[in-house]
């Protein structure tokens, strides 16, 4: 045990009382030579937040002093929340004055406080900032006569950054800049900084997107050595490699993807057997054959963790030479795969399966809409074009429905949200926001991939092999109680909220299907659940009601899939060694990929919101029908039929003085008692748009005769 570990263990003991440094030396019988080393280690532990030094210079473990360590989540209004490291502890509200200079994403130590009369939320005060997260901030420079301020693009940073004129470094008023912090904020003092670089004009949408990319730490360019390795990959498949693999090239294998997809990483085949069972083959690009462990390509893929999808653009996890080239399962080309062939019975049970290193040659590159037109509309032209595949299409549809019923029967929650696609013109400008339907072909592939992921995860679990799972923990009972209170407004209720089964939530989604409150209730339900993450420990996936789940089917665009491909190939070839090293590696991969997934999702939302605002900026003054999707203390959010959401700020609700009823998610007029609540259908007028901040402002339409 190291000295650092000994010190933490010593202070964690129940008998330990806060000690001065001299008392620690004496208790540990420290030699003169070791005093300097222990002092250094105590300082390190204090910086890491594992111990703290009290006002009277005594050292103690934070938990023993009822202190909480975590990360600050800021807000535009100036307050924040502490997200504790210990997930068993609830988030704490931190008022602006109690942040004591802490900013969004800073790691801090917080002293809990009793809730005051203004809030029932658990609250706290920042007593120490362990690490700063925002060494550089992106924002718009606003120049005054003698100095300037940078207004952060990140809405979670509420304080402007003071910049003296001598530190503008060529930046001009209105430009978007990166400012380096040289003086951290205090209790009543703004942070100070110097302009490090200029990103561009603050009225240029490309600058907004560049800002979002940098803020979310999304890498857009591959290092030279990575690009060089990708360009040098040998595309030729040797006879020796073909001979050692299972040959699927005579099978009727197809890919089904979106029309604009280029990174085709999954292909399928289906055969209906004489006994009524189905043979379902899932063939996944064998990316690990080309991306060797610890190579520059592998390290870069791990750093990125995932591909990022924005309107009209993809930032790939792997260079296009792999993602769109040698790994992509293009029609008519021999490709290497990791293939899973399952036998599925009429009830959706996988009765047998095999995992193979394979080689395929896709017979057809199909598009979701074309296959859906055949199955949903019996489109004559498409049916004639794909006449050789019609039987396969029908078998796919039948099997997908069997698998879907099996998932439904066990309680899987299907959030059938209307997704939107932002349509761009040739110049990349948003010209429409259109609903995107999950049609039958999309659902077929979804069902097949879920079945494959479950089969792989369960097999690897029972094989007692270190593995990377996709888990979704059960929701907190407090959040479910709050959700139950909310849906009571619509006449629905949950049973057994203390030990909730996903079937209960599934029942609600079925009851609200097609009703005006469907989107709103689904949204609040989703917010009540925890986020799915990667883990090297097997746990259930609550949302899918699945005991075993992983991500296996997209190694071109997700690093977890690539990682477990390596494990599977080593396992089926009897080469899996150094289990302890692998377990350590998987814990790191799980954390890193969960973090990168959140960053990518945040970036995608931000860019979608920017492009939606760009589209709506051409429609100011127009009126729409929408549904109230959220109610807050500062106004109500309204979602239009095309999924675009905007705010009616309370300052624009001028016909009465409205107060916020948090318990019932509603806004109530003090004199008129007029009530606006989630789910209400309302008519609104678009009054303003700020593309840079992705802010869309509505006002309620006045009835005739109203002033």
Summarize the structure.
Helix content is 31%, strand content 27%. By secondary structure, the protein is an alpha+beta fold.
Which features does this protein show?
five-stranded antiparallel β-sheet, alpha+beta, OB fold (Dihydrolipoamide Acetyltransferase, E2P), Arc Repressor Mutant, subunit A, 31% helix, 707 residues, 6 domains, single chain
What does this 3D model show about the protein?
With 707 residues, the chain is α+β, with helices and mostly antiparallel strands. It folds into six domains: 3-63, Arc Repressor Mutant, subunit A (Orthogonal Bundle), CATH 1.10.10; 66-131, Beta Barrel (OB fold (Dihydrolipoamide Acetyltransferase, E2P)); 136-202, Beta Barrel (OB fold (Dihydrolipoamide Acetyltransferase, E2P)), CATH 2.40.50; 224-471 and 543-607, no CATH class; 477-529, no CATH class; 620-700, Nucleic acid-binding proteins (OB fold (Dihydrolipoamide Acetyltransferase, E2P)). Helices cover 31% and strands 27% of the residues. The protein has 17 helices and 33 strands. The strands form ten sheets. A five-stranded antiparallel sheet has the order 5-4-3-6-7. The protein has a five-stranded antiparallel sheet with strand order 10-9-8-11-12. It has a five-stranded mixed sheet with strand order 13-20-19-16-15, covered by helices on one side. α1 (3-12) crosses α3, α4 packs antiparallel against α17 and α11 crosses α12 (440-462). The longest helix has 38 residues, at 579-616. The model has no long low-confidence stretch (mean pLDDT 91).
